[in-house]
Amino acid sequence: DVGSRGGRPARHLSLVSAAVVSAGISVTDREALWSILSLTGERLASGRVSRLGEPDSLAWLGIALEEANEAITSWIIASAGPALLAGIGVGLPGIVSHSTGVLRESTVLTLHDVSLESIWSQIPNTIADRIYCNNDANCAAWCLASSGSTSENLVVAHTLLHRTASGFKETVAGVGLAIVLGGEVLYGSADAAGEVRGYRWTPQARDQFGIGHDGDPEALVRSLLVEVVRGVGTIASAIDPDRVILAGDLSHYSEEVAAILADSNASGPAYPLAASGRFEIAASERCRVDHGAAQMVLNSLFTVPSVESQGDEDLSWQRILDRLGSAPARTPAPHEGARRSLQ
What is the per-residue pLDDT across 200-257, written as a single tens digit (0 to 9) for each? Predict the structure, then answer.
């Protein structure tokens, strides 16, 4: 507002935040969730893909990505404009190479050395030329980091519990850890957060972490929760973060976790942080992996690699501006499908 200074009145401009969108997909052993976000991080659409009893984990991973791609494609085509897709992020439980798109190991999905980009390239009519893959804890951390202070330091633990059809006769838990410093998720030298621990129980046995299985589900879950709290507390104590956030399936056991944190003997290294009020359990909607995966894409979009860095030139600010400026504003013909990307 120029007030009474004279001259031509100023024109108020605003960002058409839905003109460019990002998408995120979260794949677990049970389901896949997807979200579409505007440039400002508003969730414009979301949906769910069910595993429906598919026994093979590798086949399920392909199905999840294909069906999520179809849903995202339908939304892009139907959007007014249509919207330009900046990219698709994928979050999975396990150790994921962010740079190569390889799922190195997943306790929950029971997969090793799977090329996610190879699976993506075999899906017909993919809406993006490539996907950005990461550990689910990192993606959950992006969801939290994007809604918090840019100067905040966080430790985020994301846990998935898997139970076979026979219940607790064989149970697996994947525990992922992410670190946020100054509002940015750190990937570290290993290129991904990876798993803090992968736990597995079998009947009448004790695993290498000393957790017994006596057939009592409540005792089994408490054993897991104690191990998670103590493990996260050990790492968090070294970092001394502003907040330690427990997410994923841990949100279903908030009362049990609160009781463990209040017990200095059970919580161990986590107790001082919990006593200072820095431990919290995030509601599932506050820490969605699919939402965070889309936020991860937006962060990559607006990260300007320095001259000395080995950053991806396609993600440079000037290259993005050039592409946005030359992007055709038209609705794709039906035979084109929805192969629209920043290309």
Answer: 544 444 444 445 555 566 777 788 888 888 888 888 888 888 999 999 888 888 999 9
Peptide bond into 82 cis (omega under 30): yes
Neighbours of 210 (CB within 10 A): 8
Give residues with Cβ within 8 angstroms of 79, minimum separation 6. Answer: 18, 21
Q: How far is CA 120 from CA 132, 136, 176, in A?
A: 11, 18, 24
Is 241:276 a contact under the CB 8 Å cutoff? no
H or E element: which one contains 193?
Answer: none
Contacts of 334 (CB under 8 A, 6+ apart): none
- Spatial separation of the C-alpha atoms in residues 160 and 142, rounded to whole Å: 18
Both structure tokens of 21: 């969108």
DSSP character for 206?
A: B
| DSSP state, residue 16 | -
Residue 189, phi then psi, degrees to nearest 5: -70, -25
Alpha-carbon dihedral angle through residues 144, 145, 150, 154, given to the nearest 10 degrees: 80
Dihedral in degrees, nearest 10, Cα atoms 139, 145, 146, 152: -170
